[in-house]
Write a structure and sequence with these properties.
The structure is a homodimer.
Chain A: H1 2-27, E1 31-37, H2 43-54, E2 60-66, H3 71-77, E3 83-87, H4 96-104, E4 113-117, E5 134-140, H5 147-150, H6 152-157, E6 160-164, H7 176-186, E7 191-194, H8 203-218
Parallel strand pairs in A: 1-4, 1-5, 2-3, 2-4, 5-6, 6-7
Helix pairs in contact in A: 1-4, 2-8
């Protein structure tokens, strides 16, 4: 009984902090994306491409979640947008409390689109609200087309799913038919984008969608 | 205070169950490997190759850990060795208690090498002992050479690290020099194998090592 009670409290507390974060971001007119995937699917590289294409039309900031190192924040910072690095020091996901602290380190009046890159993990990050408007997830073709059914929660919760590294489709056993079938069975209305950061395939389409989502939320004129 | 106490108890209980599993496996003369990696690095495919090469010289069994589905157990079962599928139904790692139950489902008198394929997750599985003799981990080249420093725990604890999908080295930005440097800084004595399940590169070397490790533990004549 004690164990169950504590777990409930932790999740309840997290949800309360997440609601506070969401309210703060709404007041400031900020659209917030929780970007999730397994390690190495290409989240940071996609983010670099998105920033380069959208930074002239949107005020973008990034929160980088990693267990250790500031490698990703250094990569993002080189693209000229504000970035905060969170090191969870062992924890396998971001939670709303740590995001609350990271928000204190940003000038929220200068942000329209805030992208939070979660810890690389296809499981745990999907369980914790952090204050986001939407979740976006990345799966890369070398990971395999069996992943949606094996790790369903993240696929169920994502408003958009980015199938990345499509330039490697010919070098892997990835089955696009299985992927689309299984994703649609879990999440019939999600938006699916196919991208390659090598060939730039699909990056423009993804950016257009992200821009439209942001403009709609912050009621910015197109 | 309550929260800390509960977490301590959970980990302590897990370690006690793990010690019981390890003792049981030792009594039965079984060498046990905890096989870990991020999702999609190729654990199951490597396992299929290892089984095909070693099943005539060693009695092998497999425990498959997945959040949902029995896809991996079906793949392993097709190779003619005993296999038990665990579905964690949401949990992001295997623990010693669930392994204890899985061991009940196997005829331990007919096993020399037991390979437990953990849930695909580069973080949490490394934190939980399950009764293994050694941990073996897989990193695939498309995941990137920055992963050891970003996810150090698993790299620190692995007795062997398999760098898989080396056939894709030319199609990715993987930096082998960075990989070897960072792995050696975290774990100077680990064994590193480079493999490709497409070209079969390195599979023989990995199998020889696994066979030697098993024979040494179970004191089998070579």
């Amino acid at each position: 009984m004690t164990e169950i009670k504590v777990v409930t409290n932790i999740l309840k507390t997290n949800d309360e902090f997440a609601a506070q974060n969401q309210q703060l971001l709404a007041e400031k007119g900020i659209f917030c994306i929780n970007l999730m995937s397994a390690p190495g699917s290409g989240k940071t590289t996609i983010l670099e491409k998105v920033i380069d294409r959208l930074k002239n039309s949107l005020k973008i900031a990034v929160i980088e979640g990693d267990i250790y190192t500031s490698k990703d924040a250094e990569r993002i910072g080189a693209h000229g947008v504000p970035v905060v690095q969170i090191n969870t020091e062992g924890a396998c996901h971001l939670d709303a409390n740590i995001i609350r602290k990271a928000l204190d380190a940003l000038d929220l009046s200068q942000i329209e689109l805030l992208i939070i890159e979660n810890v690389g993990n296809l499981v745990c990050p999907a369980e914790f609200l952090i204050g986001e408007d939407i979740k976006v997830m990345v799966l890369s073709t070398p990971e395999g087309s069996d992943k949606p059914l094996k790790y369903p929660l993240m696929f169920e919760k994502a408003r958009a799913i980015v199938l990345n590294k499509v330039d490697l489709l010919g070098s892997t056993s990835f089955n696009k038919e299985e992927f689309y079938h299984d994703v649609r069975s879990l999440n019939p209305t999600t938006n699916i984008f196919e991208t390659s950061c090598v060939t730039q395939h699909g990056i423009g389409e993804l950016c257009d969608w992200l821009k439209n989502q942001t403009y709609t939320k912050i009621k910015k004129e197109r």
